[in-house]
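pls ignore typos typing on phone
NDP + seq
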Amino acid sequence: MKRFALIGDPVAYSRSPSLHRTAMSELEIEGEFVAIRVKKENLSDWLKYEGRNNFDGIAITSPHKETIRSFLDGESEVSRLIGAVNTLFWRDKFLVGTNTDAIGALRAIQGIINPVGKRVLLLGAGGAAKAIAFALLTAKAQVSLWNRTPEKALNLAHHFTHNEGKQALIHLQENLQKINPQDFDLVINATLVGLNEWKSLLPEDFWLPSHIAMEVIYTPLETKFLADAAAAGAEIITGDQMLIHQAVEQFHIWHGKEIDPDIMARAFFEN
Ligand code: NDP
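k done
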């Protein structure tokens, strides 16, 4: 029987285990998927004594996506460029990291629009924002970034500029109040604002019917950010979309098989 784990702190909230369990059962793969709380200070030991010995694949969530990189035998070009790992798999005897958040975000966006040339306002500069910024730049979108802590926004912009060896690829927005809504086609919330609370970083009158609003938070599925956008007639992309599409990619890496996103979606809503 194959064994998989999701590690993070906290992990109890995550829907990933149930998505993977449903997908394995659907394709008649004998396997189990457990969520394990691993504290920051125990990460190295857990990987050495538990992870490496007992699992065929490991999903990584906050706060380990960056620190785990130094404990691996190798990583993919994608996770190296993003600077974060959310998936571990075995390549021969080597434990390798990669990142499926970026492709998950891209597929979620592509379900509604082709991002090429689109003007995107990205809110946040944490792990999720990094993966989304990479996906958008790869897809040749025009990215503007705002973050509460400006230094982190600057670091994120520098990270991608440096990797591409070009001048600034990401435009920085300093003042959220001064942003002109008409300058954007797609607006993405990749912050924690709205997680289990009825708050949005943007004022209700920000939204235009021409906007597309995308959310990374999926608890609740309808955040204030999305509700305000929808009330103004904008299209919305809920947080389950990125999660489901990144899990589909993970499933392919671990099992070498395609799973229909609708099956993962069903698991998301049933559990
Ligand atoms: P991080 O901790 O890496 O980043 C958090 C971000 O939120 C930072 O930009 C932080 O700003 C910002 N933030 C937090 N509080 C506030 C606030 N009060 N006002 C303004 N900005 C704030 O988290 P992640 O990027 O890993 O995760 C973010 C969210 O995305 C989580 O809810 C997570 O569950 C979700 N997620 C969803 C995925 C999906 O597939 N749907 C995939 C990955 C994550 P600052 O830098 O100033 O602290």
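The first strand starts at residue 2 and ends at 8. The mean pLDDT is 95. more later
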